[in-house]
Amino acid sequence: MYLFKNYPYRFFPLCFLLILSTSIKAEGRQNPLDLVNPLMGTQSDFQLSNGNTYPAVATPWGMNFWTPQTGKNGDGWAYNYTSKTIRGIKQTHQPSPWINDYGAFSLMPVSGKMIFNEEERASWFSHKAEIVRPDYYSVYLADHDVRVELTPTERGAQFRMKYPEGADNYLVIDAYQGGSYIKYLPQKKQLIGYAKNNHGGVPDNFKNYFVIQLNEEVEYVKTWKNDKITPHDELEGDHVGAVIKFKNKGGHKRVQVASSFISYEQAYLNLEREIGEDTFEQTRQKAQNKWEKELGRIQVEGGTLEEQKTFYSTLYRLLLFPRKFYELNEQQEVVHYSPYNGKVLPGYMFTDNGFWDTFRAVFPFFTIMYPEMDAQIMEGLANAYKESGWLPEWASPGHRNCMIGSNSASLITDAYVKGIRVDAIETLFEAVVKNTTGHGPVKSVGRYGADYYNELGYVPYDVGVKENTARTLEYAYADYCISVLADSLGKSKKVKQLFQSRAQHYRYVFDPETKWMRGRNKDGNFQSPFNPLKWGDAFTEGNSLHYTWSVFHDINGLIDLMGGEKAFIKKLDEVFDMPPHYDASYYGFPIHEIREMQIADMGNYAHGNQPIQHMLYLYNYASKPWETQQKVRQVMKKLYQPTPDGYCGDEDNGQTSAWYVFSAMGFYPVCPGTTQYVVGSPLFDKVTLYLENGNTFEIEAKNNAENHPFIQQARLNGKTYEHHFIEHADIQNGGKLEFLMSDQPNYQRGLKPEDKPFSVSGPKNEHL
């Protein structure tokens, strides 16, 4: 989102081993944690995203992450796989390079002489001497002859550093520019401080308070400000830090760190609770146990070793965000610092999420696997509304002016229709209705252009509201979700009908001449000239070919507008069949999303950005499910690998990963806010879901193979199953969904109206 000489006689056996390791069926049950590659997606930059990720060393949904820092302080691209030097090990809260970080600070071991400037202290490193796991990080800093190790807790971490014998040993604390503070407490051998750096979305009193506990004798601690040493033990300024000189030369040095957004006292409490007297190994074991528990809740069998690595690497990403932005006080009560009003208040809070991305599959995944946490997230949304007057749409940590839509309605409705209950549901309904009346403190909150949309049925192209057609489509889907929630809560007929009517507003921006979604002027005429390949302008990080399908709730209505199933299929095929031509004139240059589409060799299909990711599943609505089955497999194989360049665009808080996790299991949530998941093509021989309610649900694909993407037959709990969707309740109740796979499509299966997925306009059954 947003903008790597073999001798001839060795060649054959080496190639043979490589082929064997990636093509044979993975045998046995490997520890899923050992299959995760946190470096997947880290070979990215401004021009081309292969994920735009960094290696997050963290616990699932941890309040703090840690990452090696190869980029300059303040650079959104904190870690790049192709970089050669490391400047520090950074505590990070960054959800995206485009959103950037907040409350960041870093630790960096140095030996020989006292250097602390980020350029001077940077050390060469090699991936050959780097170990990267979710629960552990280790790297050899060559210029300092130091090996540094890290293992995380939810709100802290333990460091272990092995310094060279006979050399002076230092540890640099960098509290970052943007407002920082540092103080040395010699009696406790502690440093305390705070980091205020941010890129928006914080109140004036925002601070990330940290405590650093030293476990070794200290010769001295010196503070620095703007790259100059000072004589003070305590220092405040735009950019301050400290240099610790250890008394004993060489050997291992251990440091514990914890932080809080509430206070130093809470940071101390977090340190004591999460680390206390634990050894480095004990803390690592706890982090390992947490990851093994969560990753082990989905067991995959079969497929290649590379496919299993890709699955668990994407699942790891899916379990990172949204971030827990709450803490436990002395009474073990859940409290949070509000990034909206600056107060410390009771209750849950989550952050670092853009719902424009994650409503599609991340949150539907939580409704299946983590309904209890999803309920906590709903409570956090209600708290955000009470504290700011609006629901968040892109929070990091508070409201950020990024992306479009009012997709919080999707999250709330999807949770409710799937049985997730919270006391604050009436507050949440009030909030989603308020969203429809206008925009909040930033244009991405609420609905920018709502007055036009509510009066005309669409946001006009010529009234100065950018991305107007995309907004219209997303508002219409959100209105569908509100109508469902209103019905579920027993709201008045008038309220239900209002939002049911508005859910059809997508029709206002459908051009019957070109059969594409198109900008429409205030006078009712479609904007002209019109190029469906033009990125941006009326759309968001895409073109009309990508956004036309954003009628999640009424695909059959879209089929009718296009002239029936044959015409609809022809339009779908057109996206894949045409060359990857584009018009970048709106931006003035090809943004990275354009390049990612261009180089994928899949026509105008732009899987690297979210608006089109559900499109592959739409063949199910038009009597050609085998096209979905084939294309979903193609994308999984071609566009995902467990490597530094393993994604095909921005990973975006778990969404692009969630697409893979769902698709590999064999189904996908095309329309959150309904109880259905649309069937694709299961990648593995067997997937077992260990559900929160104690039930298990199995997806078994018999006769499965790389060239067997097609479903011949299906059975649910032993009974023949013709539907091209699976109900949420069928998964939660536990059971078994079996597929018989083949290299040939079954042209007769599931062609009845009731076999097609839900659509507001009702199923059509136009046999081809």
TrEMBL record:
Record region (Disordered): 746-768
Residue ranges occupied by any Glycosyl hydrolase family 92 N-terminal domain in the UniProt entry: 35-257
Cleaved signal peptide residues: 1-26
Pfam families in UniProt: Glyco_hydro_92 (PF07971), Glyco_hydro_92N (PF17678)
Named cofactor requirement(s): Ca(2+)
InterPro entries in the record: 6-hairpin_glycosidase_sf (IPR008928), GH-type_carb-bd (IPR014718), GH92_a_mannosidase_put (IPR005887), GH92_N (IPR041371), Glyco_hydro_92 (IPR012939), PNGase (IPR050883)
Ranges of residues in domain Glycosyl hydrolase family: 266-742
Domain of life of the source: Bacteria
Subunit structure: Monomer.
Protein name: Alpha-1 2-mannosidase
Organism: Persicobacter psychrovividus
Lineage: Bacteria, Pseudomonadati, Bacteroidota, Cytophagia, Cytophagales
